[in-house]
Amino acid sequence: MAQVVTALGSNLNDRLSYMREAKAFLEELSIKDALASSIYESEPVGPSEFEFLNGVIIIETNLSPLDLLQEFKNFEHSHDRPTRYPKWTPRTIDLDIICYDDLKTQQDKLVIPHPEYSNRRFVLEPLAEIQPSFKDPVSGKSIKELLIDAPVMKLDRTSLSW
Questions:
Q1: pLDDT per 10-residue tile (average), the chain, 162 residues
Q2: How far apart are CA 64 and CA 156, in angstroms?
Q3: Is 83 contained in some domain?
Q4: Is the bond leading into 113 cis (omega within 30 degrees of zero)?
């Protein structure tokens, strides 16, 4: 059984509904109760005019990393996210595997830990909220150290509920 840190984001159409549906999907995949952060709103990374809703959910699963990735892609596709899309385009839902236990892997379709997560305050702050003892599996840095090094961006914890 693996503990998986998952990042969620939506910046198109009914963002909150997509986030709620994604949380329900992740809870179905999880063997134990999922742990969810608050919902945050952030400016987009890259050239997009729509702000994102973001969150982090930690699940436990027996699925392999590649099987889990395929489940995520199937869910995204079923929620009107195209399988091929230009980088930084608006999206109904985005699910990313940030960490899978302490696994470090680099494959064609999957890199774990996620190669950009330490530069994404919209991942780090929600993760710090629900797992303050988190340490990066590669550098060993604490979540506090990762936040100190992360680029500044507009990010607000919302009062929205899952």
A1: 97 96 98 98 86 98 98 94 69 96 95 97 98 97 98 97 97
A2: 33
A3: yes
A4: yes
